Amino acid sequence: MIYTVTLNPALDYTVYLSHFVPGKTNRTCGEELFFGGKGINVSAVLTALGEPTVALGFVAGFTGKALLASLAEANIGQEMICLPKGQTRINVKIKGSQESEINAAGPDVPPEALAALMKQLDALRATDTLVLAGSVPPSVPKSIYEEMLRRVAPRGVRAVVDAERELLLRALPYRPFLIKPNLQELCDIMGRPLSNDGEIAEAAAELQQAGAKNVLVSMGRDGALLLDEHGRLHRERAVGGPPVNTVGAGDSMVAGFLCGVAKGYQHALRLGVAAGGATARKSGLATGEEIGRLIREFM
Questions:
Q1: pLDDT value at residue 247
Q2: What torsion, rounded to 10 degrees, do the Cα atoms 50, 150, 154, 189 define?
Q3: Please, are residues 238 and 206 in contact by the beta-carbon 8 Å criterion?
Q4: Packing angle between helix 288-298 and helix 265-280, nearest 10 degrees?
Q5: CA-derived radius of gyration, the chain
Q6: Mean pLDDT of the chain
Q7: DSSP letter string, 50-116
C-alpha cells in the first residue's frame, strides 16, 4: 500500500480574469475548484492509475468536510484526522495577464492530533510506501518529516520525500527510497546554477552520497532526469506539448514513478514523465486514460 501524508491540504480556488485592476471590483470569466495538497495529489493520480493508496493528514471545519467529500467522489482512500478547530485552507489562484496566488496558513495542529498521525504510521510495514510531500504548517515542528522517518525506518518502510530544502535535507540520513526536487530546488540546495545534464547529475550524486537512494529531478519543459540507486543515469524528454497548468505536475510524476517502478527504473521514469505531462496540459490532475494516451502517442 502507498500512504501519502499531507499536513496542510487545501481547496484550490482558481479564478480567471480578462484583466485585473487592484482596488476595484473585478469580475471573473471562469472559476474552478479542486482539492489540493501535494500528498493528496499523489494519491489522486495513484488512484487514477489503479494503484491502492491511502491519504493521511489533517482536515478541519466545513472546508475540510468538502475536501473529504471530493476524495470520496474520486474514490481516493483516506484516513484523514479531523481537527477540533479551524478550517482547511482555501488557496486562491488568480489567472489573467499575470498569475498570482494567495495561500492561506491553515488550521493549528494540536499535539494530540500529531500523536494520532504518528500512531497511524505505526501500522506501516516493509511492504508499504510512505510519501511525505509538501510544506509544513506553522503550528507543526519543522522536524516532523524527520520524526516520521525515524519512526518508520526500523520497519523497512519505503520512503519518498518531495519537500522544500530544509525538510528534504533532514530526510537524507534516513536513506529515503526516492527524493524528487525540481531543478530550481536542486539549484537552491547546491547553492549554484545547474545548466546542463552533467551538472544536474553531479548534484544528484551529491544528494545520493548524503543518503538518498534514487534522485528524480523534474525539469519542466526539459523533462526529467533520474539517478538510480545503482548509479545509472536515465533521461526522458517532456511530452504533451506546452504546459497549460503546472500545479500538480510534479506530484503526478511521483505517482507515475511509483506505479511503474516494479518494471524497472527506465519504465518508472517514462510513466512519471507521462503522468506529469498529462497533468501539465490541462486544469486539474490527469486521468489514467490521459496518461496512457500520452504514452501511446509520444513514448
A1: 84
A2: 70
A3: no
A4: 110
A5: 19
A6: 93
A7: T--EEEEEEE-HHHHHHHHHHHHHTT--B-PEEPSSS--EEEEEEESSSEEEE--------HHHHHH
Q: How confident is the model at residue 97 (pLDDT cuts 50, 70, 90)?
A: confident
* Separation between Cα atoms, residue 220 and residue 207, nearest integer Å: 20
Report residue 177 as a C-alpha cell: 527510497
Q: Is residue 187 classed as helix, strand or coil in its secondary structure?
A: helix
Q: Supply the residues annotated as catalytic.
A: 251
Distance CA 258, CA 261 (A): 5
CA-CA-CA-CA torsion for 71, 73, 77, 82, nearest 10 degrees?
A: 40
Please state the length of the chain. Answer: 299
Q: At what angle do helices 249-260 and 265-280 cross, to 10 degrees?
A: 150
Pairing state of beta strands 99-102 and 89-95? antiparallel
Give pTM, 2 decimals: 0.94
The CA distance from 67 to 238, in Å, is 31
What pLDDT score was predicted for residue 176? 97
pLDDT at 290: 94
Residue 225, H or E segment: strand 224-227
